[in-house]
Specification:
The structure is a homodimer.
Chain A: H1 15-28, H2 41-48, H3 52-64, H4 93-99, E1 104-115, H5 118-124, E2 131-141, E3 144-154, H6 155-161, H7 172-177, E4 184-193, H8 196-202, E5 209-218, E6 224-232, E7 238-244, H9 245-248
Antiparallel strand pairs in A: 1-2, 2-3, 3-6, 4-5, 5-6
Helix pairs in contact in A: 1-3, 2-3
The structure holds a DNA duplex.
DNA sequence: TAGTGGTCTAGACCACCGT
DNA sequence: CGGTGGTCTAGACCACTAG
């Protein structure tokens, strides 16, 4: 068999993404079974009319999403067939909400401009005396409050944010149109007690536990574009991670000591 | 300049890992500055005496760890120079603790064997009537209680766990020597209230918030080997994740009814 | 032993960035 | 425009798995 027709509209333009999308659909539709085996790389290369390298690139995508394993000597095994699509969801509350079929909402509670404190200068790599914009927003899903978002922007970003309507749903989308890209992020997740503002906005008691996500986002050049702290009502959200030893074991594997 | 000497003991045997390790050291030691630029792929290939493909493989490693960005048309930018080892930590409390310079400890509180309930059969893909081993362990860092771990093992794994000493620090290490590998894991992180056992073991009040990590781990063939639920005292740990638009391992999803 | 994925090479063309 | 990273090809050898 040669050259399966690849939907030209599928995903973005590159070949390996098209192959990955096609394989993903085959897997999630159950074509290979729940714990079944994928065809060999060479067979897939022939089927799609591409080189083995391109097939491997496509399979790397599926593996990063936790769809398949890979081991030397054996065909790849299907891990699951109902995984969430990952990626940009995490970088944007709006995208995440919509992908779940929920209607995201946002209301700006306050916005102010002031000099950055030491921690903010550290996180955003600002010079002493630099100013930042600080926003406080209540985020909703289908009208229900779920999260309080405190974001600190460097002034060159904040100036644009300040011009957005108070009820704009997405911040990242209009910023992207101004050439400001959110591409890399560091996240820290822990628990924190609700303060007075949290309690008022979310309708919970002071001191009740909230799931906190702190996030520093940079653009492709490594320049920080936001430092945000989101506090979620328990039960409204959970963070999900997939990881694989094989793919990232490249770190140190010393036998002991460290 | 040609062929920089690569430490033959560095990391594991493959070329790209050696290159990655060498570059990581150069970056973390500040050779390229905080937001500096890396040499071009071609230059690195020449320097190390390898092909450009191998250099790209090495750089993919550093990028997955959040050390560098990459953009078409521009040299790679150094993002940070002091990042913690991220991914594999999630697979093992012991490794994570040691990587932080803390001394991990564990005490087995209870171990029992019983028929799996519906949820456990679902998670571990067991047949009706199958039995599981359930453990309850208190985990400590340098002697201080930080986490309660409830793990469900399929019987073929549990039989081995049951033979381990009650105070063994790591479970995954002795299991690996029996050929049981923990390679892929799905994690879900949220908040939960402490129950009576949690409160007693961790020394907190009933109902006080705990950070919960649920984890299902599989071996390379996709067979589930454990289903675990860890409850951390607030302030003792935070989960840290790095992701970029191009390749991500983290996603967020609505909380389902357990 | 045959088949598989992991690694590596040496080229090629293109899209994009900055000058 | 030249330099860069992103993609893709066509081969090669090896380490490992399984029958």
């Amino acid at each position: 068999m040669t050259d399966v027709a690849l939907d030209p509209d599928r995903s973005v333009g590159t070949l390996y993404r098209k192959v990955a999308a096609d394989l993903r659909e085959a897997i999630t539709s159950g074509s290979y079974g729940e714990a079944g085996r994928l065809p060999a790389e060479g067979a897939l290369a022939e089927r799609y009319g591409v080189s083995r390298g391109t097939v491997r690139q496509a399979l790397a995508v599926l593996r990063a999403d936790g769809l398949v394993t890979s081991r030397r000597g054996t065909r790849r095994v299907v891990l699951g067939n109902a995984r969430v699509q990952s990626f940009s969801e995490l970088l944007s509350f709006t995208h995440w909400a919509r992908s779940m079929g929920e209607e995201p909402g946002g209301r700006l509670e306050s916005l102010l401009r002031r000099p950055a404190d030491a921690a903010e200068r550290e996180q955003l790599r600002l010079e002493p005396g630099a100013e930042v914009y600080v926003t406080l927003r209540l985020r909703t899903l289908s009208g229900t409050p779920v999260m309080v978002e405190r974001t600190v922007y460097p002034s060159w970003v904040g100036e644009l944010v300040a011009q957005l309507p108070a009820d704009v749903v997405s911040h990242t989308e209009p910023l992207r149109e101004h050439g400001i890209l959110f591409t890399d992020a560091d996240h820290t997740i822990d628990v924190v007690a609700a303060n007075a503002d949290d309690a008022r906005l979310l309708g919970c008691r002071r001191g009740s536990p909230l799931l906190r996500e702190r996030r520093r986002t940079t653009d492709p050049t490594g320049i920080p574009v936001e430092w945000s702290q989101d506090r979620y009502l328990p039960g409204t959200v959970a963070f999900s991670i997939h990881n694989s030893l094989a793919s990232s074991a490249l770190s140190r594997h010393a036998r002991e000591g460290d």
